[in-house]
Amino acid sequence: MIEILTPAEVAKGRETGALVGHILHTLKGRAVVGTNLLDIDRWAKEMILGAGAVSCYVDYAPSFGRGPFGHYICTAVNDAVLHGLPHDYTLADGDLLTLDLAVLLDGIAADAAISFVVGQTQPAESLALIDATERALAAGIAAANPGARIGDISHAIGTVLEAAGYPVNTEFGGHGIGSTMHQDPHVVNSGRPGRGFTLRPGLLLALEPWVMADTDVLVTDPDGWTLRSATGARTAHTEHTVAITEDGAEILTLPR
């Protein structure tokens, strides 16, 4: 299903997006050396429920996971990149942490992810991975204009990632979002321009470039959820929910 929202629904999406951005910003500040991933999950739960919002993850049970997910945020460390199941792990200096969060507020969902390095040690490889995903996301957002095609976004994202020297996995990528978290259209992170659904005002998209340093092959942890690079290489993942407007893409998931 491809959902085109009304202006009133897009306005609700702005509130949901601001909440997601605020929670991620807050959690980034708290995620220091010595922090346990289960504490991050608990803090996310407290902020989501305190805002009167609903987690999109707790009861989520798609075909690719061993559901239900049972937690409020995805926490992926180092070689983990997607769907990181929070567990009893204490963050160490130099860890590359990705936080991925989706919530539903007043009937509209928003989804975002950030990657950052914990502590004083800032490995160049990790910073380069993060930078590539952030630049790719910016390129994808710049391409998300009314009348453009989904393939234009995919091409813009993939061009940046590939120029940075990273293999691109197209199994998991961005997606439509609205009254539910995951909707059509699927937005792969590499593709040919001029193809796919034509963007219209009222369409919400979660765009999410992610890469692994030296492979495009994923492996799944025994927990049935956490996806890692097959080589053990480090990874990064950056995501925003955007609304297509008459003037281009509006980022909804920035903290206020």
UniProtKB/TrEMBL annotation:
Its cofactor is Co(2+); Zn(2+); Mn(2+); Fe(2+). Substrate binds at residues 83, 182. It is an enzyme of class 3 (hydrolase). It comes from the Bacteria. One of its GO terms (cellular component) is cytosol. A divalent metal cation 1 binds at residues 100, 111, 239. Gene3D superfamilies: Creatinase/methionine aminopeptidase superfamily. One of its GO terms (biological process) is proteolysis. Binds 2 divalent metal cations per subunit. Has a high-affinity and a low affinity metal-binding site. The true nature of the physiological cofactor is under debate. The enzyme is active with cobalt, zinc, manganese or divalent iron ions. Most likely, methionine aminopeptidases function as mononuclear Fe(2+)-metalloproteases under physiological conditions, and the catalytically relevant metal-binding site has been assigned to the histidine-containing high-affinity site. Its EC number is 3.4.11.18. Keywords: Aminopeptidase, Hydrolase, Metal-binding, Protease. SUPFAM superfamilies: Creatinase/aminopeptidase (SSF55920). GO terms for molecular function: initiator methionyl aminopeptidase activity; metal ion binding; metalloaminopeptidase activity. It catalyses: Release of N-terminal amino acids, preferentially methionine, from peptides and arylamides. A divalent metal cation 2 binds at residues 111, 175, 208, 239. The keyword Protease applies. Residues 14-246 form the Peptidase M24 domain. PANTHER family: METHIONINE AMINOPEPTIDASE (PTHR43330). Monomer. Removes the N-terminal methionine from nascent proteins. The N-terminal methionine is often cleaved when the second residue in the primary sequence is small and uncharged (Met-Ala-, Cys, Gly, Pro, Ser, Thr, or Val). Requires deformylation of the N(alpha)-formylated initiator methionine before it can be hydrolyzed. Belongs to the peptidase M24A family. Methionine aminopeptidase type 1 subfamily. This is Methionine aminopeptidase. It comes from Sanguibacter inulinus.
